[in-house]
Design a protein that fits this description.
Helix content is 76%, strand content 3%. The chain is an all-alpha fold and 330 residues long. It has a single domain, classed as Rhopdopsin 7-helix transmembrane proteins (Up-down Bundle). The protein starts with a helix and ends in a 6-residue tail after the last helix. About 5% of the residues have low confidence. Pfam families: 7tm_4 (PF13853).
């Protein structure tokens, strides 16, 4: 018994001291409580809708010269980020559900963690820039062509990329610097930073504090600015007392507001479920976290396609060209 205990202690010490070595692997615990085929069918449905709708929207914007405007450039950027966001973790999740291959290397885990945070924060920043675009279009319509130039679009794109790279990169680096011991079962389908850090044998308070700071600096600041922009828009519409102005503002902002609600409501639901993890089944929390990566990407292009007249017309013209030249598809 004593010899077995010493051997166990030695193995524990070796695991503790190894830290982040090349052989370190984590185990992703997805949905052992429920039928995996039901979950995989749901995920496949949302993934298919997200990929088809976003790629279609990107094709329409690229093929239609009338949509080569700042508003649609940002929408194309949003669709591109949506494609990347919904494909970061979902393929691995489907592999786990279909083949029960639930191990993931440390390098793959922390890379996945980085890109999940990067694409999510970039989506928030794109909504921020789009809110400013709508503010200028409604509150300063005469100055819109001189403010929203291609140069400004390039600067805004650089801001979105650089800002979120700078804030997202330390998250996986801090997590990778921790020591991980015996317990490597992540109670999730992907490498969510808090779920991974709680497996550490060392203190992860610095990483937790940084995650909280990033959430408020990036997500919180974006949301406050978006709310402020739309409050100014609402004030302008109310002061004008014009039904036509109100209708124009609603037509201009409605699709964007719906997308923002989808995005931030899914974040809020995920956070609430994370805090109330003891009160709700674990698989519900995991599923909500996955849907945050699939539901907004699936709905964003559909909402814009249905509610934006210019995109509907562009799709009709594109389909008309295909019908006029059927031999091109032969």
């Amino acid at each position: 018994f004593l010899l077995d205990s010493l051997l166990d202690l030695e193995e524990y010490s070796l695991n503790y001291s190894s830290g982040m070595n090349s052989s370190l692997e984590f185990v992703l615990i997805c949905f052992p409580e429920i039928n995996s085929w039901h979950i995989s069918g749901l995920l496949m449905f949302f993934l298919s809708v997200a990929l088809v709708s976003n790629l279609t929207l990107l094709l329409v914007i690229a093929a239609e010269p009338r949509l080569h405007q700042p508003m649609y450039y940002f929408l194309a950027m949003l669709s591109f980020v949506d494609v990347l966001l919904c494909t970061v973790a979902t393929p691995k999740v489907l592999t786990i559900l279909w083949n029960e291959d639930n191990t993931i290397s440390s390098a793959a885990c922390f890379t996945q963690m980085f890109f999940i945070h990067l694409w999510s924060s970039m989506e928030s920043s794109i909504f921020l820039v789009m809110a400013y675009d709508r503010y200028v279009a409604i509150c300063q319509p005469l100055h819109y062509p001189t403010i929203f130039t291609n140069k400004l679009v390039a600067k805004a794109s650089a801001f979105i990329i650089i800002r979120n790279l700078v804030f997202s990169l330390p998250l996986p680096l801090l997590a990778a610097s921790l020591d991980y011991c015996f317990l490597r079962d992540i109670p999730h389908c992907f490498c969510e930073n808090m779920s991974v850090e709680t497996l550490s044998c060392s203190s992860y308070s610095a990483s937790s504090i940084y995650s909280l700071v990033v959430f408020f600096v990036v997500g919180g600041a974006d949301l406050l600015f978006i709310i402020f922009s739309y409050l100014v828009v609402l004030r302008v519409v109310v002061v004008s007392r014009s039904c036509s102005a109100a209708f124009k503002a609603f037509r201009t902002c409605s699709s964007h507001l719906i997308l923002i609600c989808f995005f931030y409501i899914t974040i809020a639901i995920t956070m609430v479920s994370n805090r109330a993890i003891q009160q709700i089944p674990r698989h519900i929390h995991v599923l909500l976290s996955l849907l945050h990566q699939l539901l907004p990407p699936a709905l964003n292009p559909l909402v814009y396609g249905v509610m934006t007249k210019e995109i509907r017309q562009a799709i009709s013209r594109l389909l008309g060209r295909i019908k006029v030249h059927p031999h091109l598809g032969a």
